[in-house]
Known about the structure:
With 273 residues, the chain is of the alpha+beta class. The chain is 21% helix and 32% strand. It has helices spanning 29-34, 44-66, 141-150, 177-180, 187-201, and strands spanning 11-14, 68-73, 82-90, 94-101, 106-113, 155-158, 208-216, 225-238, 241-252, 258-269. It has a ten-stranded antiparallel sheet with strand order 1-3-4-5-2-7-10-9-8-6.
Amino acid sequence: MLPPMTKPESWSAIAWNPVPESENRIHGDDVARAYGFRGGLVPGGVVSANLLHPAAAAWGRDWAERGRAHCVVRSPVYDGEAFRVEVTSATDTRCDALLVDARGERCAEASASLPGSPPRPPRRRHDRLLQRDTARPEATPEAMERLRKDGLAALRVRWTDSAEITGYLPERSQLAPVYREHGLANPGFLLGCTNWLLARNVSMPAWLHLETESQHFRAVEPGTELVVEAAIQELFVKKGHHFVDLDLELYDLADDAAVATVGLRAIYRLRPA
């Protein structure tokens, strides 16, 4: 007999920016302030992982193997500031949550669910792989349009303790039990993979991760090497910002099985500061 499911519960912590020296200078204080922010922004993937902590804590490995989520980051979250994830509705297989900062600002929101079985997983296309010395064009609208037509190169990345982002809080003991006890890849890393693929294909001095729609198919064990493939679906301009919508697929390199899919919306080119 399967153990009973539990309902996600509200949770609070201190926000953490794990990449203040990132190539994406929106995570550094100087550039972020030039764009009107109070300081370097916590990465959108990390904010989303904070939002999804209640689902991971409640559903454990089931969440890592077949969970589905929609996360939207609406305003900045800053390193070192307190926040609370308020679960506004919850059942044994679904929850909605808001991330509220110490000022009462609703910074982000998410819905998470645990389908009885995930949809049919995609098949790997075997896109060409990025090489270490691959030249990156500047992320102009013209360059992005060429990549939309010609395709993005795929990224190889390994889930280990030396990954660029290994968690969504500074101490492993603070992570949901399924991550801290079993070492499985968490959304801070998995959603981060989508950002790294884009950043390895084009040069972007400052950009914003805004929204993701993700579906898990397999838990990612320690040491797993992944291949991330992606395609640009849409390019558009709004209020002077240049947006990109991408569909991304993450595969286990050992057997080409899909571990997750992610739809990402990002601002790849901010309007002038």
